[in-house]
Amino acid sequence: MKLLLAFLLLAGTLTRAAEPPVYWLLWFDTEDYVEPASDDAALRLAQDLTQRGIRATFKIVGEKARVLEQRKRTDVLRALAAHDIGYHSNYHSIHPTPAEYLAPMGMLDGAAEFARREEQGLRDLQRIFGVTPSCYGQPGNSWAPQANLTLRQWGVPVYMDDGSHVAFDQQPFWYGGMLYVFNLGPHTMRTGLDNPAGLDTAKRSFDAAVAALRQRGGGVAQTYYHPTEFVTTEFWDGVNFRHGANPERSSWRMPRRRTAESSEQAYRLFLAFVDHVRQTPGVRIVTARDIPQFFEPRDSAAPPAAARRLAESIDAHDGHSAAELLLTLLGLPAQYVDGPLRRVDSNYAAAEIPRAAWVRAVADAADFVRQTHRLPDSVAIGSQRLSLPDFAATLAGVEPGAPVARVRRGRLDQEKRIGSNAAKLYDWVIHPAGFAPEGLMELARLQAWTLKPARLR
Predict the structure, then answer these.
(1) What is the pTM of this model?
(2) If you average pLDDT over residues 81-89, what whole number do you get?
(3) Which residues of 415-451 are buried (b: 16+ CB within 10 A; e: fewer)?
(4) Per-domain residue ranges of the chain
(5) Quick one: which of 16, 218, 245, 282 could link to 21 by a disulfide (CB 3.0–4.6 Å)?
(6) How far apart are CA 376 and CA 361, in angstroms?
(7) What is the pLDDT of residue 423?
């Protein structure tokens, strides 16, 4: 009998071990530096989670960290330091927000401007907490692709937030050289803090997400809150910076506070949801600092057969980005390269390119990538040019040794993974009414050459 029980226990353990991995990220946008009660909320959340053996990621605004120092809240700083520290911009909602100041800029000058405005907050987090933040996420929906270049330079490996600007099959993906935990769709869930009846619904949503992830071979789910939600009934920034308003600090107003009973209910509902997650078999609770280790490395060589698919569709294929596929066709080693800086149309008029001219064009494109570590905007064919999509499609379709290269038009399927309605994508109460930075979304589409799914190890 003992032998049978031991066998059954072992069989159960092996079955659970064989289940696809499901990882759950819990993170907090820790941003409210107006209402002091939000400091206590961050303290309580951090301590309650520590008592349960759970490490969350607290994405902290630079000014929030500095204000905690000024208020001498070393108790809050110590409690937060027991968790994972991410970065959530320098000032969050004081205008101009990241999307506002980056809207008129390109990739390179925008990356430099993002560094100029945001680096102080990063350095203050490093000074206060003794670590480089594990991740970055934009304030509100003030997302901009130029940030990726600067974050890589800072050694911040993960972009973790929510939004609809870019996505890949509702799971983490690689984009702009960053591991993105972003736009996870139904795999982002939470319980409300005001209605106890919603708790069971939230638990069912979590269970359904876990089941769906296991069905697809494993994956990532996430939940996020703001500490200030537990003590206020309105957001601190909506009260002060709505629709472009930028009052002086002396005129800032406090958000409305929850009652003590309402706050206690919010903590209770949140912790009940967390306990449900914690008790779900096979779910591993991780932080943004942990998450990269569960995925295959960013850069990998694409097989020639996959690269040839660019002839029909410019997109990620077989787990490789269009940029990686193009590198294979150019005979370059696996490496990360950025997408082009601007969109340039073809003006090459002929249907075919003589072999000698084509060989020179391919060599020139490869040399450009080697020297700049990005894809060219277009490729010269003598005094004329092919757009990058047309060049990639043509290269993918050329037979080795062919006397001419037949020109193909590239079909940019990858751009369907980028949001298209800028007005809706940036419709945040903090942005000015009608704010619709189409230029940012054009840059986002250009960088879709770097987009591919993140594969679990």
Answers:
(1) 0.95
(2) 98
(3) bebbbeebeebbebebbeeebbbebbbbbbbbbbbbb
(4) 20-294, 304-335+347-408
(5) 218
(6) 12
(7) 98
